[in-house]
Amino acid sequence: MNRHPDGGGPRRGPLLALFCAALVLFNFPMLTVFDRDATVFGLPLLGVALFAIWAGLIGLLAWISERRPERRSGRRHRKDLS
Amino acid sequence: MVAAPVVLAISLGYLLLLFAVAAHGDRRGAQGRSVIGNPWVYALSWAVYSSAWTYFGSVGRAAAGGIWFLPVYLGPMLAMLLAWIVLRKMVRIAQTYRITSIADFIASRYGKSPLLAAAVTLITVVGILPYIALQVKAVSAGYDLLVHGADQPAPPRATWWQNGTLAVTLALAAFTIVFGTRHLDSAERHEGMVAAIAFESLVKLGAFLAVGVFVTWGMFDGPADIWARAQAFPELQSLLRLGGGEGAGAFGHTQWFAMTILSMFSVLLLPRQFQMMVVECVDERHIRRAAWVFSAYLLLINIFVLPLAIGGLVHFGPGGGMDPETFVLSLPMAEGATALALVAYIGGMSAATGMLIVETVAVSTMVCNDLVMPTLLRLPGFGARAGGDVTRLLLNIRRAAIVAVLLLGYAYYRIAGDAYALVSIGLISFAAVTQFAPALLGGIYWRGGTAAGALAGLLGGFAVWAYTLMLPSMAKSGWLPAGFLDGPFPLLAPEALLGMTGLDNLTHSLFWSLLVNVGLYVGLSLSRAPSAREATQALLFVDVFERGGGAAEPAPIFWRGRARLEDLVGLATRLLGPLRAQQLFQEHAAETGAASVEAITADARLVDRVERQLAGAVGSASARVLVASVVQEEPLGIADVIEILDEASQLRVYARALEEKSLSLEAATAELRAANEALKSLDHMKDDFMSSVTHELRTPLTSIRALTELMLDTPDMEEAQREEFLRIVVGESERLSRLVNQVLDMAKMESGHAEWRIADVDMRALVSDAVRLTAGMFDERGAQVLMDLPATVPVIRADPDRLTQVLLNLLTNAAKFVPQEGGRAEVVLRAGTGDLAVMVRDNGPGIPPDQRAAVFERFRQVGDAATRPPGTGLGLPISRRIVEHFGGEMWVETAPGGGACFAFRLPLDPEEGAGGGGKRWASRC
Amino acid sequence: MGIKVLIADDEPNIVVSLEFMLKREGYEVIVARDGNEALEAIRRERPNLVLLDGMMPGLSGFGVCEAVRADLSLGGTRILMLTAKGREADVARGVGAGADAYVIKPFSTRDLMQQVRDMLA
Predict the structure, then answer these.
(1) pLDDT of B764-794, one tens digit each?
(2) Which one of C9, C10, C13 makes the best mutation probe of the B interface by having the most chain B beta carbons within 10 Å?
(3) Which fold has domain B655-749?
């Protein structure tokens, strides 16, 4: 098992930043930005916005989680081995 | 409408399918080809979060409040963003120390406190029962709707034995017993159950999406069409605005925020979530992918909530008598799509059963380990030294607990089932488990938390929760007198404590309960230092990534005492069963290199290992009691803990030594090079010094030799001339001897061989004496000396002769530099807060700022050689050295009027050292 | 017109002894207290011989020596370096700078006088 605190996974910084961003995006007063009678493709803006933000966050989380961990020293080795 | 036997048959058929999936999972697990060992299944098992509450309740909530169904899913999204950080730590801790429930987790963190474990268990049971009832109700309501039709009110309730709900409940109990307590596993893992739950997650998602697609594109022409048609109803137009729907008026953003935070914690702290995420985790690396997959799952299962809610309202008409919570079933039924309605029913049932199974497994583990076991251990004849295999007993306790919890839930539903809407029950439970957050999260990030703080926080928070949320909801259902809501007096009104208004009851309760909880937790924790056991557990939890043990570095073991192998073997056999116990000791023998099980030394490592295994079976608090009862322990103090930690870190030191060796070699080389440079430069300085000394010695010698030779060779020299020459010779001889003395002085001081006679020094007297000694010099030059001395100054410890030397030097300098006429010098003594300062000012030419540093250099005489008075160039450097020897400092600046002001300060306490922040007197020059 | 000798030294007592010694021999004596003053006096007074102290504030004796040798119009000036620094390196430096002779302090007045006489002969 990987003993490194990061466990070879995503780094803490981007995750914490994303968390803070989500906290702001999902709450008052940010929500009032989308609170209007407009529609997108015939759908009410507020609902679409919330789901879009949500999907965006999932996308970012997936991207942060799934990209290869950057290892400054390890990258070349891996290439050599493959 | 569907015939009751058909619905029952399909329900039981579905349960049988679950049995098959679970059995398959268990079998594969036993063969070592686990089906759950990947992040996808792991993520699906987390989706047990979506219970019947999501399945039916979200649509109801959306129909009434628009986007208000969302915070319960946005909170988990927030939690998932931090899952890799927080959840992974929880998983690592739980797996390292074999923790099998949230009660065990908290109790273990705070010194394996049985009291804390019991408290968490009780809070869980009380808080979760309504939630279980809610699931039973959902299954039952779905059944009623299918059997009795959508447009007719449900008939009066049939007697309980005729009710299909009870049958389903009992079937569930059977399932849970089979797959939740098949064997006693020290890791408390249930492969089959996880596989079944993941399967259920797929079923409910599929069913919900199927209904969503059917309604959106079958009954309507896409989501835009639903919304367009909703515009015909004025009450629906503002549904998707912040202030719309139920909460028309101002948007309750505090409640929105509260619900987001509440569900953020709940997704980690609900017993079933803890079970699935932490206890059933196969590999912590799976969290990386599961976090976003689970988030995506939640998004998918919610995507049709709004179309279904609005579609249902449009179809049946707002206020059309149809309960929006049943739209998932009633919409297909209304269109005559009976098969789809059955699929939807199965989906709802899978949502409910999944939650029920995992929740009861988790709760039964807690009840068994943290309520029943500690009680049993107190019974005479059951203590740790009693014989007999108790594994079967443990399993039976859990089975009984499962049946009891499910039946209690069923009973709760029968009694209170119609009292609340689904959503409010769920939120009440969420608020209850949120009380675990301070103790749990504080426990894994803060070492200072203590058992007393955690217990008081939990109980206090729970009491406030009960008083402000649980009991008022009962009062509103008519079970308590309505007067309860007014409180014993107005300031204690349950929903407006201390007269607090402007918050909805959920936010109000959350605010007060968490305030009390955190306040007590932090306050009590800070008020008393943690005990040794609390401190060690805190260390093991908070630093789990550093100290958790592993191949690289063994974890510190905080145990000292004596144990006998037979006792430990006996204890393990009794609680783990002979097979597992034997396996345990064989593994230990192999790892420690013992020839056989009998040859194992019963050391701290073995005791720790046995205790961890027992903790997996009966919880860490009970395991602690059991182990303590068969071994002779030495109580550990904080000092012992530190010692053990030192031993552990010793190993770390050895491990790093190798890595550091090359670094230190490099450093040593650099150091040597630097030392060499320093030596070279010192050598160079010495040469310079020698060269300066010879130069300074040769100069007076030259005069003396030349003049004496001339006198010798010129017998007829005029008397006046001869006299002048002799005077010069005498003066140069004096200069020569002074120089020799000072060079010796300097050399002694630099080599550290100078003698210092330390005595109490009264600087007032010293300054007066020095002025008196130099009075003659000033008189000769027609200059006057003033003294400005305070009435008293503190006595300092120093060498009075040396200080006199300093003062004489400064005064002589001043006397040399004062102008021929109107010469004036002033000596000032001042006492600061921690030091004494002496300033000697003159009204001579002063020293230009760029030469101030140079005056303290050896043989540096500043000014024009022709006009400057004679000197050796060593007086000031020596003076400065003396002052620095006593921890003081010496400097020069411009006196008011342009003369020089030489000043030095001496600390009263030499230990304080130079520049110790004492008051700078320089500004007074 | 007598023979002019310039004494350039910053130590007043040494100047006193040199001045007495040279005057006793009947030379005309000029005194300079530092390097710049010495160079100025050389250009103005054109002394036949300069007794030059190596270590002086401002322009050092070596500097004066180099400046005199660089100035072709001062080609006839003889230079005798006096210095308290007796190390080989200083002698070499003095000779390198173009001094005609080199005497180490403290000096014997008789030897120095002989040297002066030889140089002015």
Answers:
(1) 888 888 888 888 888 888 888 888 888 888 8
(2) C13
(3) Helix Hairpins (1.10.287)
